Amino acid sequence: MLIISCKQKDQSLIEFDPRSLDVTEITLSQIADNISYTPLDNSIQLGEIYDFHYPKFINKSIFLYENKVGVLVFNRNGKFISKIGSKGRGPGEYIYGLNFTVDNKTETVYICDLNEIKAFSKEGKFLRSFSLKQFGEMINSIELFNSKLFVFYAIQNENTPYECVVFDTTGNVITRENRRIPQFTSNVGGGEGAYYFNNKIGFWNQYSDTIFLISDDFRRVPSFIISPGEHRFPKSRINAPTELTNKMSLRQIFETHHFLAVRYIINEVNYFALIEKESKRISLSNWEFDGSGGILNDLDGGTRFLPKAYYTENNREYIIGFLYPYQLKNIVSSKDFKNSSPKYPVKKIELERLANSLKETDNPVLMTVRLKK
After folding, report:
1. ∠ at Cα 51 (39, 358), nearest 5°?
2. Domain with 217 in it: what CATH number?
3. Residue 326 in domain
4. The domain containing residue 226 runs over which residues?
5. Mean pLDDT, rounded, for 91-115
6. Which pLDDT tens digit goes with each residue over 315-339?
7. pLDDT tens, position by position, 117-157
8. Predicted pLDDT at 3
9. What are phi and psi of 350, to 5 degrees?
10. Mean pLDDT confidence for 257-267
11. What are the residues facing 166 on neighbouring strands?
12. Is 369 a member of any domain?
């Protein structure tokens, strides 16, 4: 684990600079007071759960995207509830479903299928669709807040006049926000996203330095800064992959009341940074594409924890990770686990029982960590 120094132009904003590193350590017990596991049942076989579009925890349901099947709904106990529509090219079907959002009141699912939004009921029934093609070439991400659909566009396409367009749930435009970065063209996409936090929508992309939060009345407030410099993506075409070797590729950003979280890749190494808002300290850990790595787990002695989602419930905050049964079985059979002395010994016993009850081919397990108040 590492600690990163922070330099600030504005004392009210954190500036995250991945080039300044000092060694330190952080464990789950420093930020969390409980951990639990939820195996997803095997009634529908899960293959590839796309790594950078995260599950949604809405009311008592879990919504996630599986690459071949589409958007799926489970309850909080991991029981499969429904499949949202079908993947395909026919009426009411969708080709791409990894970019989706859910209405927290009606649990209607909105799927971004190229430049078209398709709406489905929680039970999977197709409801309606509307096109967004006239507003930009490519949509980066969508998020829904108070029955307003925020659509963020890929600013690396020069024919994209808007950074964000907000619609009602039937496709009528509420407001449009012109792009703030002058037009440019790049052939490198990805690394953009949006997240929900504290009644605001946060959004980010590879080419902007400031991460903003947008409130319900469309005011944008800066949250923190990604330091500019030679480690950022160039606003030009890339001729060879080697030109990106020393560039920081953003993969995930989210917030809690006490932390900012940034997952990224630089110099072909994967990092997860957890920034403490009050002290401005930043801990850093490595991660892998299979979901392994992350924060040292001294709560029950199990696998390291890589957060991939955040939600609140009953005035408490939770962060979620995924792990595969083979990872769980490997850790509980290791000497390190058997010799560990975690904060909650009873949780260690429960984890070992869970691992022994699973087959390596079973569906993934949700790892839920409750943050300290």
Report:
1. 20
2. 2.40.128.630
3. no
4. 2-33+47-310
5. 91
6. 999 999 989 999 999 999 999 999 9
7. 999 999 999 999 999 988 988 888 999 999 999 999 988 87
8. 39
9. -65, -40
10. 93
11. 150, 175
12. no
81-84 contacts, C-beta under 8 A, 24 or more apart: 81/122, 82/122, 82/123, 82/124, 83/44, 83/124, 84/109, 84/111, 84/120, 84/122, 84/124
Q: What are phi and psi of 149, to 5 degrees?
A: -95, 110
Q: Residue 329 is encoded by which pair of tokens?
A: 């079985």
DSSP conformation letters of 84-113: ES-BSSSTT-BS--SSEEE-TTT--EEEEE
Tally of domains in the chain: 1
Q: Examine residue 362 and state whether it is found in any structural domain, yes or no.
A: no
Answer whether residue 94 is part of any domain.
yes
Question: What is the signed CA dihedral for 355, 360, 363, 364, rounded to 10 degrees?
Answer: 60
Contact 109, 100 (CB under 8 A): yes
Q: Is 335 exposed, middle or buried (0-12, 13-18, 19+ CB in 10 A)?
A: exposed
- Sign (positive/negative) of CA torsion 192, 257, 274, 349? negative
For the chain, give the percent of residues with pLDDT over 90: 64
Residues 223-244 have pLDDT tens digits of 999 999 999 988 888 888 888 8
- The token pair at 174 is 């509420």
The 3-class SS string of 37-85 reads EEECCCCCCCCCECCCCCCEEECCEEEEEECCCEEEEEECCCCEEEEEC
Task: Give which of 336, 337, 309 is closest to 322, Cα–Cα.
Answer: 309
Question: Dihedral, CA atoms, 46, 116, 203, 257, nearest 10 degrees?
Answer: -50
DSSP, collapsed to helix, strand or coil, labels residue 183 as coil
| Alpha-carbon torsion, ordered 144, 366, 266, 227, to 10 deg | 40
Encoded tokens for 48: 């590839």
For tokens 């949509």, name the residue: 139
- B/e letters for 224-250, b = 16+ CB within 10 Å, e = fewer, are bbbbeeebbbeeeeeeeeeebeebbbb
Instruction: Work out the number of other CB atoms within 10 angstroms of the CB of residue 276.
Output: 16
- Asked whether the beta carbons of 160 and 176 are under 8 A apart, the reply is no
